[in-house]
Here is the input.
Amino acid sequence: MTRRFPELVSLGGVLNIGMAMAIIVSFVFYSSDAPAHESGPVKAIKVDAKKAALGKRLFFDKRISGDSSISCASCHIPEKGFSDGMALSKAYPGSEGFRNTPTLINTAHKAAWFHDGRLGTNLNDVTREQLTEDYVMNMDMRIMQERAKQDPVYVQMFKDAGYGEPSNGSIRKAIPEYLKTLTSRGAPFDKGTMSDAAKRGAKVFHEKRCGSCHAGTRFSDDKPHNTAVPNNPDIWSDPMRHHTYVAFGLFMGIENIYNIRRDVGAHVRTHKVNGTDVGKFMTPTLRELKYTAPYMHNGTMKTLAEVVAFYNKGGGSDVNKSRAMRPLGMSGEQQADLVAYLEALSGDPLTGAEHVWKDAIPANYTAISDWLKTPN
Here is the structure.
């Protein structure tokens, strides 16, 4: 038994493979800090136009999932800020997700990925996990490579991009190249066109020190914190979601996973024996919030007003809650102004995704990508 999280039972000091991997990669995450007070537009990343075009086609192509039923865009929908508009994500047929789908806009700037921050090396590794995990896209990469080789358009696109013939490695490189193009653009905050309410909200944001965690141009410090967000009971009442979480937990080495009735979050990174890391989740970006409701790692809050009210009262109740969490004492008007400011951090998710490379690629590549986005 542990002192602060009794569900986590010691395994006699023996670490399984998933546990060891999580601890090793955690050292990578904690070495990266976001700029503390940087503000202004998110900087565009230089991309290779033809590699990005190839990555875009792959992103919208259902053939890169095991049974060809889902694509990356099935959960990361452009019109929804590259999230999906659901509290908890879908998953590979035969399972359901247990966390909220995060936006992919500005994701190439992140220091650590996923709500628990378990991967922090590069987008190539993130792409590989999402393609191969059985509860996500369940793809055998050898089959994926052969499927690409059977498509003459892919064969030409891989060649034009300088990859040679289609391969697993080049697929994992091309998709992140497309993700680099997903940069926030056109937000009133960036253009200097915020409303009076949003300007008042900006003052509230700084006075209440929201920027302590929501820092930098993406408004995230890329670190995990426990703000005592309430659990989403659907994860355990829905057998499909529960077995997905159990499968994930077994791989990540979560002790006593079958008896746990909460998402342990960043605990998968550090596996602290006293459980003080349980319930920590990565600070989400505040960009594109207009498109990415519902909110929190488990989708328990439907509106920004609900989120602001949650933080105004000092968060929820949890033994591990961050000491930085405290009641903010905002009036109703201040809360409304803060919501206006948060909304002013959203631009046009589609404009940001296209402007970097659209004019530099062959017209037929664009047409193919448009066709792939069309519902069957």
